[in-house]
Amino acid sequence: MSIKTLLTMIIFTGSILTGPLAALAEEGAKTTEDRLAELEQKIKILERQLEIEQEKNTEKAKTAPVITANAKEGFSIKDPNGDFTLKLRGYVQADSRSVSGKTSSNDDTFLLRRVRPIFEGTVSKYIDFRIMPDFGGGKTELQDAWLDFKYFGPQAKLQVGKFKTPFGIERLQSGTDTLFIERGIPNNLVPNRDIGAALHGDLFNGKFSYAAGIFNGAADGASLDSDIDNNKEFAGRLFVNPFKGDIGLLEGLGVGFAVTSGKAEGTGTSATYLPSFKTPGQATFFSYRSDVNADGQHTRFSPQAYYSYGSFGLLAEYVVSKQQVGRGAASEKISNTAWQVAASYVLTGEPASYKSVVPKESFSPQKDQWGAFEVVGRVGELNVDDDAFPTFANIASAAKSAKSWGVGLNWVWNKNIKWMIDYDQTMFEGGALDGDREKERAILLRSQISF
Length: 451
Hints:
By secondary structure, the chain is mainly beta. It folds into two domains: 1-64; 86-450, Porin (Beta Barrel), CATH 2.40.160. The protein is built from one helix and 21 strands. It has one helix at 3-63; strands spanning 66-70, 74-78, 85-100, 108-123, 127-134, 141-149, 157-164, 193-203, 208-215, 233-240, 252-265, 276-278, 284-287, 293-309, 312-327, 330-346, 372-383, 399-412, 417-432, 435-436, 440-450. A hairpin with a 7-residue loop joins strand 3 (85-100) and strand 4 (108-123).
């Protein structure tokens, strides 16, 4: 084959292949461009889907509940704005009580003094609520059940339901915050919980607080779940911390005055509307005769104060309760009085407070941390009006006065756990067939958990 023939064949073959290869190349180029366009479109779709998902998550976060569980707040659930909240709190107090000087099945006993789950929170931003039953002592009682309307802020709130009567300074302390295991002897004259409505608030950055309301009218030292008569009782309290926020010796000084006034009319032996008085060891040392009833005006008043400076704290109150009583045709206004002074000192240096001490370091033996230690002491006295004897009370079984003193040690592990030990001694005038009731000596221990 000649060279010319060979060249002719090569040129012919190339002309045959050039067309299809060029077409394939053009088709390949178009496919790549299409694929890039498709890929860009998919990326845009994915980006939009992510934006939509983020928008959904943002909207969901605006309405998703916030759940917390910690030592400060306990267990709570709320909406992101805090307009609706629900908190689960509570406390349990397991006590040991050893008492001499009386005859009772409860002289030496272990007991569950308080077992109180607490449900509280906020509805529609401006309405707080609280429900607190108590299962202590093997009984079921409703302690708190109230609504608090706060449309005008802390300056003016309206509380309705069952709650503590705004009166006694120690009575208004939470059961978890008291210096002693049992409250002092003046609380025999102080109303506990009642059903009614009260306007209350704080002014001038908390330097001035007030409460005033109308209640069914509980007897001295008692709580009330329903009205025994058709009368109502006014209760009011003012408390001033004039140096709050200042730095100085008087910063922790607060003074107050409380009063109640109303009528009480007992009905028979089952609803006398009259109290009995107990010692710190929870022994009854005074009660009226069984056929004596409240029979008219009942007035109380109480000057009170709390002071703290550094690790030192001091609580004082004086209570007067004047009650018209009747027995058959006899009627008399009985004026009973009581007072106490209680002091505390925190050995580990934390500041004293109207509320429980908060340890600087929580209990942790592994870290050589032991919490906070607080020593406490108090003296107090209750005197029954001489006019109560012998017509309305029997001097052979009801003491006309009780003088009490006590000391104690509180060991606070953290915000949730506290141990307490107290020694209380009470002396009496009258109350026994042969003269004075036997002196009472009480040793009380408590293990407390609260959250």
